[in-house]
Structure formats: structure tokens, C-alpha cells
Amino acid sequence: MQHVVVTPYRAQWPLLYQQEAETLRAVLADNLVAIHHIGSTAVPGLCAKPIIDIMPVVYRIDAVDSYNESFQRLGYEVMGAFGIPGRRYLRKGGTERTHQVHIFGLQNAHDIRRHLAVRDYLHTHPARAHAYGTLKQSLALQYPWDIEAYCNGKDAFVQQLEQDALAWQAAQSVR
Fold first, then answer.
1. Calpha distance 115→122 (Å, rounded)
2. Residue-level pLDDT at 106
3. 120-125 — which CB contacts under 8 Å span 24+ positions?
4. Greatest extent of the chain over all pairs of C-alpha atoms, in Å
5. pTM, rounded to two decimals
6. 158 pLDDT above the threshold of 80
7. How far is CA 8 from CA 39, 67, 109, 112, 152, in A?
8. Sign of the alpha-carbon dihedral angle for 143, 96, 79, 59
9. At what angle do helices 126-142 and 109-124 cross, to 10 degrees?
10. Cβ neighbours around 25 below 10 Å, total
């Protein structure tokens, strides 16, 4: 059972991302195109579950499976696509999760774009980030031992946030 904890922003999150990104870079090597800090811990000031979300982008998603043993030696649980075709999902830390890795192939432009759009949108829209943080804190208090209810409670907000972020991103590229 996973305890749902949402904390105020922590200044060490970017450093924790950088440290883990270097480790992942070494494993993915020549297959790696780029690596990004995503999710709430990537947005300064945003309350979050203290789990670092990392999104490596690779040339060949099918080649990632050959790195499973290396990921496991680093403490990751290898979860496969885990509900999103074209992704490889890894998690670290067991019930007190510390890291989640969402690996996408370069050809999966939509999923890559939506993750980056939400992160960048929240960077530039502090009122929206604050509303999201407040919602997460409220849900964590309401469902401290029910991650599914917590996720369901923020689903509508996140879907709208993603739509708004993608529209904002599209408008930015027109300028």
C-alpha cells in the first residue's frame, strides 16, 4: 500500500533529477536523444509527491528492453509499457517511491510533447500551478492511503491542464 504524501516544493529536487539523469545517461548511452525532468517536481514552487519523474527520449524504444538488467541493478522495477503503448516505465523505491522513469521513442512525439507542454505551462502560469498544488494537497489529505482515489480526484483537472498546455504551446510556436 502506497502512502500518498504531497509536500511543499523542495529545492533539492532538481539536483536529485540531475544525479539520476547522469546514471540513466550511462545506461541508455548511444540510444539516448535527450532526457528531461518532468512532473510536479520539475516546477519550482509546486507542491508534489516527492517522486522525481524523468523522461528519457530514445532513438529506438524496442532496444530499451535490452537494458532491463542494468536498470534492475540500479534499483529500478521494470514495468514495461504499463498502459501506454510505446513507453517503457520504471520505478524505484518500492512503496516509498523516489523515482519514476518514462522512456519514449523519438517517434512518439505526442506523448513527449504533452509532458513537456504541461511542465512548461506550469512554469509560466503560477496561478494554475498553485491551483494544481492545492488540489493535490487536498486529495492527499482526503485519501492518504488510496493512490487510485487520489489519481482519480485529479484526473479531470490534469486532462484540462494538458489541453490548455498543448494549446498554449501551439500558440507559442506560432509567434
1. 11
2. 95
3. 120/165, 120/169, 121/161, 121/164, 121/165, 121/168, 121/169, 122/40, 122/43, 122/46, 122/161, 122/165, 123/43, 123/44, 124/168, 125/168
4. 47
5. 0.95
6. yes
7. 14, 34, 31, 26, 21
8. positive
9. 100
10. 12
Residue 139 in grid coordinates: 486529495
Tell me the CA end-to-end span of the chain in Å, nearest whole number. Answer: 47
- As given in the structure block, the three cell numbers for residue 144 are 492518504
| pLDDT class of 95 with cuts at 50, 70, 90 | confident
The grid coordinates of residue 11 equal: 529545492
What distance in Å separates the CA atoms of residue 123 and residue 101, rounded to the nearest whole number?
21
Q: How far apart are CA 166 and CA 158, in angstroms?
A: 12
The pLDDT tens digits of the residues spanning 38-73 come to: 999 999 999 999 999 999 999 999 999 999 999 999
Q: Cα torsion at 86, 49, 12, 26 (round to 10°)? A: -20
What are the contacts of 82-90 at 24+ separation with CB within 8 A?
A: 84/111, 86/61, 86/111, 87/61, 87/111, 88/61, 88/64
The whole-angstrom separation of Cα 159 and Cα 4 is 20
Residue 104, C-alpha cell as written in the block: 519514449
